[in-house]
Amino acid sequence: MSKTQSLQDQIRVKLFSIIGIFLLITTVLILALSVTSILIYQKRQLEQYQELVKTKIESDISSVLREANSLGTSPILWTGLTDSAGRDAYLLPLLQRININSLHKVDLLDYKGRDFIVSDNYASGVRVDLPVVKEVVATDEIHTEFTQSENGRYLLIGLPIKAPFSDSALGVLLINFDLTAAIEVLKLPEGIEVNINNSKYRPSDRFGVDQISSVLEIKGGDYIVPLSVNVSKSILDNFTGVIVGILIMCLGVIYVFVSLKKWSRTFSQNTTKKLNELVKAASNVAQGKDFVLSNKVSNDEIDEILLSIQDIFLNQKESNAKLLISSRVFETAGEAILITGVEGEILEVNTALLDITGYKRSELIGQPAGLLYRNSALDASDKTIAESISRQGSWKGETFFTTRDRVAIPVILTISSLLDGEGINLGNVAIFSDITAIKLAEAELKKLIYEDQLTKLPNYRAFFEYVSGLTGSQTPNPFILLFVDLDNFKDINDTYNHDQGDSAICQVANYLDRNLPDPHALFRRSGDEFIAIIHVVDGLEITKSKLSTVLHSVTVELGVQTKNKIHSSFSSGATIYPNNSKDIQDLLVYADTALQASKEGGRSKITWFDDSVKEKLARRNLIEILLVQALVDNKITPHYQPEIDLRTGKITGFEALARWHDEKLGYISPAEFIPIAEQRGLIDRVTECMIIKVLHDLPKLISHFGDVKISFNSPPRLFIDNRIFKLLVEDRLGDQVDYSHLIMEVTESELMQIDCDITSQLDRIIKLGVQIAIDDFGKGFSSLSRLSTMPIQKLKIDSSFISDYENSGNTKIIESIVGLANSLNIKVTAEGVETMKQRQILLEIGCFTAQGYLYSKPLPIDDALSLPAMIEPRQVDL
What we know:
By secondary structure, the chain is α+β, with helices and mostly antiparallel strands.
């Protein structure tokens, strides 16, 4: 009968055998991984060294090839190779400059490969008898050769020198590149061998040597040199450390084996001791007794079981404390809490619920929960909530609860099912908050969103919702969409101040709301503009007649101390639904177009959208379409208005102004197509078309008039991304463009609104020779401090100051502008000069350059070229 082993001995023997086998397997794996890692590591090193060598060689050789290419294509070199005397004076410096780098030397040979110009320190023996030189002379192609000397390995590159006027090479540039020195600069580790040959070279395999090769094509200018780069290293160099490591590992294994025997005995003793402690702890917990763990805890599995038993005991204490806290939270929570059973009976409520509903606790416990949230108006909602809880186990949303006085109050309600550990439903818990105050705030916010704060009328947002309901009906009822604008409202604001202006708007709103034909809906659009929907119930003609009476005039009382009766009129535009269109966007366009027609027709009238108004809208739309095609076909042409020296009548320059003649519409005024171009984002393309033609006409004007300046306008958006600069320098006309005869005009207000770095862009344009002028100066609100720091050469006084010259204030403004320009050394030109009187005033002020119809209107290029150099002003004032 065999001897029975104790638990302690069984654990010790088993652990000893398992860990011994584990150590043996681990040792073998580590050895295999070490060898593999060394091989992979060496391969990665070779790849890195190869990339380093390739980068160095490619950089150095590419650099000298580029320099040689630049030298070989130099007319100076061609001349020197065909010159018999004095060539050293200008060729030798070129070679000295290219031979600064000690890694290479470049010599110049003649067309037969003989020395022509050589560097001071050229390598002896590198001459005409070299195969590379013979190959270049024979083939007129680039050739390479590798040579070995006592100083190291060299790469010889022969480059033929070709000129456009010769069929054969004029000479040879011989490059002697020191490969050994170039590699030594890299300071590669010992044992790394680098071999550089021609691209056809293939290294042979060597035992115990790891190597990597690749072909490198080096480009420099027009030349390409293919090379083979081979990097190698002995594998055996890295295995000395591996052998030492194996010996150390064997000693370590022996030490571990001995230590394991001792440890297994101690481990088995500690394990049996802890098992005894575990049995004792489990017994104490089962009996409800407290227990304390020993101080020695090693965090093994048995200790974890002991800690878990301790956690169970502590969690039970914590759970009891949490139950106490939960009961306090339940009672003191700000939200109302309702707990119901599986049959919907009320099990518990908190104080907040009693405060909100007005019930006593005794009146609710045991009652159905429907007592609180069910009434005849909410049965459908209750059904939806019940279905959601039954299907998903929860519901959240807005509903109504009922107070003890049967008053419905809005609440935000969250209901969740109460489930036990096995998923069996125990009832529901409902949490809700009274949101009466939020609902009142929402109503007030909606009023703010949809109501104009000044007139208390519905606003434009409310109009869209209202009219969308009308046009979306299956059986549309006719109505009139009316745009109403109060005439000359700006004068009321300027005369009586904005508070009185607001009062006028309110009085007009009340007038329209009282007098527009019923039924109607009135909305305030913005400012002094209103929109009305007039439902047609009495017939269209009767409704039109009523509107004509109501929209004839209005009287408002303004003034603080004394009330003044101010009479004003309306400009209105009207369109009819569904007669004119069933689409609300079309109706808005039609009504707005009719309103603009009323304003353009003298105001104080109502315009009904009809065929004539439609024709104007169609013309505008047609111009938009034709303008796009006109820009594609370059039909926007410049007309040139001369700038005149008022003292002599001499033409000093021209301003290029955009003009357009269409085959269908004939001559189209700039006042008609320029605003359309600005609104549709086409003004940049108009400017581009103008600049192209101005650059084309510029040589003709200079040839005819001499030193004249041509001005063109540039919109501010062309400064974004340097587009105006790119447009000017784009090679459209070759060397024919003389930028010193160009002046770029930017309007005063646009110049100050440009966000990008305008000053640096203007400097770049000025360096081309283009001058910068501010157009319409005085019309905006300039920053004089900014003006003084900007590179401006010219100011053009706005024509509004010239036309109203009898106003002493305008004369003083002109004097100030001229004085400002003189102090900043800036030229001044007056625009819009049409009378001899205006000319005389400008001369007296000291403004000596002007343009306007007094001298000439804008002319096509051919008519401008027919003008004399000196123009006399018209003798009769226009």
